[in-house]
Amino acid sequence: MGNYRMGTPKKTASKKTTEKKAVSAKPGKSEKIHLLTQMIRIRQMEEKTYEMYTKEKIRGFLHLYDGEEAVAVGIIENLDKEDGIVSTYREHGHALIAGMSMNSIMAELYGKAEGCSGGRGGSMHLYDKKTNFFGGSAIVANGLPMAVGLAMAYKMQNRNSISCCFFGDGAVDEGEFHESMNLASLWNLPVLFVCENNFYSMGMPFELAQAETDLVKKANAYKIEGAAVDGMDVMAVYDASVKAINYIREQKKPWFLECQTYRFRAHSMFDPERYREKDEVKEWKKRDPITTFTSRLQEEGLLDEDELNEIKKRVAEEVEESVEFSEKGTDEPIENLTRFVYSDEPKTLNKSK
Amino acid sequence: MKELKQQKMTYRQAVREAMREAMIKDDRVFLMGEDVGLYGGCFNVSEGMLEEFGSERVIDTPLSESGFTGAGIGAAMGGMRPIVEIMTVNFSLLASDQIINTAAIQLYMSGGQFNVPLVIRMATGGGKQLAAQHSRSLEGWYAHIPGLKVLTPATVEDARGMLWPALEDPDPVLIFENTTLYNYEGYMPDNGSIVDISTAKVRRNGADVSIITYGIGLHKSLEAAGILAEEGIEAEVVDLRVLRPLDNETIFKSVSKTHRAVIVDEGWRSGGISAELSSRITEKLFYELDCPVERVCGAEVPAPYARHLEQASLPQPEKIAETIKQMGGLHG
User: Fold this and answer.
1) What is this model's ipTM?
2) Contacts of B169 in chain A (CB under 8 A)
3) What is the SS3 assignment for B262?
4) Same domain (yes/no): B107, B10
């Protein structure tokens, strides 16, 4: 169901074309390899941004997605290109799988004019109109009402699109989560609420923040159907999202999906990680979505060592190209400092009626 | 509506007609807010609109200011043209995250990719003995935020005419309707539906002093000008109409003519829009001023309930007139 947002990654660094490809509910070899490749693209991109941060090429806050890749890939791969995506400040992976080019992401992190927002947004605020990627927000939970509104628009326009909203477990603490769940249910809106539960809102452990830790129960309290899924298993997320998206499109109602996952790195680059034990991180790393899925594909005889190396090599080339692209990037002219505070040209309303 | 153009109408009717007209003109326009439908609007502004347009376009919301304001932002970004009504500016603080952290900055953070064509209407102001949590004038505070446009219609013409250009504007526009103006009656001029949302207007000509004001302050200032005229002082009254962006040209032109400026604002003086106006005038016209800029603002207290206390906390025509009479070179 649905279309690939991105299609297969670029075979050579210079090819710019993207292709759409149907994804079935029961993915075969090529689709599974594609899912793995997409996760590897996120991982390698994030590792490179970490490196470039230590080299001071990237500044500000940098929230990395290592460990959580199965969530972005398992869900966004099943969305249609017309579906809207609303994300968080840990959104590089979402943006990439939504179909944004690694170049425009990396250049934005570099603060260059060639970045998706010309250096105005940075790591936490990636946007892309072409792929209906409505941005990363650094205010926890404040994207949920936007996702509700996008779904209102889709419904009012009789489109079959849905809005997909990513948020962390910390967002569940906020009132906007509860207001949004209620509105989406009350008005039967096509919203896929995806809670990326990585069990820490910055340093606050999930069980110290929530009186009721069964999040699906909270959704059910708003009469929203939902499920909790192993967010470290890309196929589990993929299957759950096929079910969720089918439900939303057919029933014209929201769905809540909790993906239990874990971030392998610190919250941001300024986090001494006093709140969790090293052994805990080590245990979760055994469930690394990329290594476990790689082993599974190898056991199933769907992937050999050469193919894996070829994927890694291609992705490494894409990452290198994004670095070269960003290194060559230009600075947004200071004369443009106040550009886009307001729109340049008023767009006239449709007066046909 | 055409037949109403030359009619006498209340400010409330003018806002209603503006919304009806917009919804008839464009299918993408809808109204959403607390009690806008079945109740007919907390201030009776949207009475009859649910029956006329149906519940899909006049949407009663739960008491979730942040949720439905954010939904308005999303709907606007998704191609609709929502009018979100927040019952009063006091409650808008619950939605201020959405207004300030989202609506105002999407265009900038996205490098010009996503504009937010949203209109948010809300009631503002004191004077109705509703005490501190229902009587704030925070329009100047919103005017602090780059990315927002802030309108303060003070006449029936503006109440009627400002909505359509606000809906046509590609960026978020906040419209502040002073609660004490809803019953105010005025005549719609022939061209009543054509107004801009970018300029200030001189509502009364005068040579001696410029009173710069907006909203309910316009009416109090016009009254003060009447008092002063009896004593031979001709006050010019400038209605700002738009608090962001401010129309420097009209303000400076008036003050250059009169060489005296007094700013009338129900909002608080400290850090308020009156402070900004005073700064701009002083920065630009210091050597043209015959005396220091004066301000008549709301007292720096939470609004009190008792009538005599509340009235004492608000700018009044007598106080405005008295302030002007004390200005250098003016003798009543």
Assistant:
1) 0.93
2) 346
3) strand
4) yes
The H or E element spanning position B297 is strand B294-298
Residue A16 has pLDDT above 60, yes or no: no
Is the separation of the CB atoms in B249 and B201 below 8 Å?
A: no
Domain hosting B285: range is 201-325
Q: Count how many domains chain B has.
A: 2
Residues of A in contact with B33 (CB under 8 A): none
* CATH for B92: 3.40.50.970
CATH number at residue A225: 3.40.50.970
Contacts across the A-B interface (CB distance below 8 Å):
174
- Tally of domains in chain A: 1
Cis peptide before B245 (omega within 30 of 0): yes
Tens digit of each residue's pLDDT (9 = 90 or more) over B196-207:
999 999 999 999
Give the phi and the psi of residue B175 in degrees, each rounded to 5.
Answer: -115, 125
**Is B65 in the active site?**
yes
Q: Is B308 assigned a catalytic role?
A: no
Contacts of A349 in chain B (CB under 8 A): 25-26, 28, 81, 167-168
pLDDT, tens only, B277-332:
999 999 999 999 999 999 999 999 999 999 999 999 999 999 999 999 999 887 64
Q: Where in the sequence is the domain holding A153, given as residue range(s)?
A: 29-328
* Tens digits of residue pLDDT in A219-231: 999 999 999 999 9
Residue A277 CB contacts under 8 Å (≥ 6 apart), including other chains: none
Q: Is residue B77 in a domain?
A: yes
Q: Which residue of A has its CA nearest to B22?
A: A351
**d(Cα A4, Cα A19) in Å, to the nearest integer?**
8
Using a CB-CB cut-off of 8 Å, the residues of chain B touching A340 are 107-108, 110-112
The verdict on a CB contact (< 8 Å) between B113 and A180 is no
For residue B99, the 8-state DSSP code is I
Tokens read off for B140: 């100047």
The residue of A108, A331, A349 whose CB has the most chain B CBs within 10 angstroms, and thus the best one to mutate to test that interface, is A349
Nearest residue, CB atoms, A120 vs list B76, B82, B109: B109
